[in-house]
Structure formats: structure tokens, C-alpha cells
């Protein structure tokens, strides 16, 4: 490929069935449809889409049945990992046509895709029945082995839970359990360009193991930016967003924060006389 490779990242779709509003407020289905339309209409269009978890709200088969045809409208391949609102069995049953996913839900839904300019490794950081995240020792060993196989291949890791404390009180009460162990693995493999995460419904970044952990905003609703230890669990309807990661072999990986929706503009900086006064 002699042009930049574009990876769009969306996260935390929280889709419901039966046209129900999430938390009685958020039209998550409408938000996802706007996101898909936006990505399809982009110029240049992203080459792939990755989705960093919380695909649906309660992990039910009827929710995944709504989600699947919506994602099938994307004009590019999409790759997904589960979040704490997902359930492995129903997710796999609904997305049996996603051949990169494991065949069985008996364990974590980890995967690897090696066919793009950026290598993709999906990690299932969920704890069934829990809110926080972790990677089992067996997952960390698998990750270490996978990274060792291609030490020169620029790699994206996709997982739901960011492996760090955000400062948003209610989201930090059930943190990533073994973040230090994951960081030691990442530090051994400098080809890891990014850890692409969700869960926090806000864009944020942190250095991690010599790489960068990037959190994607929510496709519909955002968690309130409240850095008090006693921050309550609440959300708002700030503009929905996504991340767009641009890979160029010479220039490296640049991560842009985008928003969905229509806004005034674009307006020119210059006219026939120069900079507009």
C-alpha cells in the first residue's frame, strides 16, 4: 500500500433491542446509524473499523441481533472485542461470520489479524459478571508469544478496559487488575504502536510500557469529566466521537479525535485579499 492506512475506532455502542432508549435517555441505535453513515461517507474512507467493546447493553441475543445488520452496513471490514456489558456466548453466536473471532466462548475472545499494514491483536479484558478489567496469565503469555513472532510489524492492541487509573472516581473503583503485568509485556515489544481502549467514554491518553494507551469517546453518550474521588456514576450528551488513526510507514501513527454530527462550516481562512479580517 503506497498511501496512508486509516483505522477508525468506535466504542461503547450500548445497543438495545426493541428501539428502547439506553438508560431511558440515549438513542444508541440512532447514534450508531449516524456513526456508520459518517464513516461510510468519509473521504478518504477508513480502511477498517475497530470497535473497543460494550457493543450492546446487557449482552443479550436480541441486542446482538439488532447490532449485526447495523455493522454489516459498513463499507469496510470491522473487528470487535467485548466489553463488560457484553456476553461471550451470545456475541459469538451473532457474529459467527466474523472469521477472526475464536470458535468457542469457553475462554477469552482473543484474536489476531495479520493481513493489513498494521497488525491487529484483539484482547478480551472482561471479567464475566464484573465491571473492571484484567488479562489472565495465559492471555499475557499468548500476547507475549504473538508479539515475539513479528517484532518488526507495527501492531495495534484493541481491548476494552484502559490499563490505568483515569481520575474519574466511579470508573476507577473497579480498575484493571493486573495492569503492571501487561505493561511489562508491552515494554518488551516496541513495535506496539497503540493500545486502543474504550470503557471510559471520553478521549484520553497515557504513556504505557513505552507505547501509548488511547481511549475512544463514546459513539452516543459520554461520561462526565468529573475528577473527584467521589464522582458519581453519571453521563451527558456531549458530541459523540471516534478516533481516526493514520498509519504511514515513513511518518508513523497519528491519532485524531473526531466527532459525529453536522456543525457550521467549513469556513475559509483566506479570501482574494489574503487572511480574512
From TrEMBL:
<comment type="similarity">
    <text>Belongs to the cyclic nucleotide phosphodiesterase class-III family.</text>
</comment>
<feature type="domain" description="Calcineurin-like phosphoesterase">
    <location>
        <begin position="7"/>
        <end position="203"/>
    </location>
</feature>
<dbReference type="GO" id="GO:0004114">
    <property type="term" value="F:3',5'-cyclic-nucleotide phosphodiesterase activity"/>
</dbReference>
<dbReference type="InterPro" id="IPR042281">
    <property type="entry name" value="GpdQ_beta-strand"/>
</dbReference>
<keyword id="KW-0378">Hydrolase</keyword>
<keyword id="KW-0408">Iron</keyword>
<protein>
    <submittedName>
        <fullName>3',5'-cyclic AMP phosphodiesterase CpdA</fullName>
        <ecNumber>3.1.4.17</ecNumber>
    </submittedName>
</protein>
<dbReference type="InterPro" id="IPR050884">
    <property type="entry name" value="CNP_phosphodiesterase-III"/>
</dbReference>
<dbReference type="GO" id="GO:0046872">
    <property type="term" value="F:metal ion binding"/>
</dbReference>
<dbReference type="InterPro" id="IPR029052">
    <property type="entry name" value="Metallo-depent_PP-like"/>
</dbReference>
<dbReference type="InterPro" id="IPR026575">
    <property type="entry name" value="GpdQ/CpdA-like"/>
</dbReference>
<keyword id="KW-0479">Metal-binding</keyword>
<dbReference type="InterPro" id="IPR042283">
    <property type="entry name" value="GpdQ_catalytic"/>
</dbReference>
<dbReference type="Pfam" id="PF00149">
    <property type="entry name" value="Metallophos"/>
</dbReference>
<dbReference type="InterPro" id="IPR004843">
    <property type="entry name" value="Calcineurin-like_PHP"/>
</dbReference>
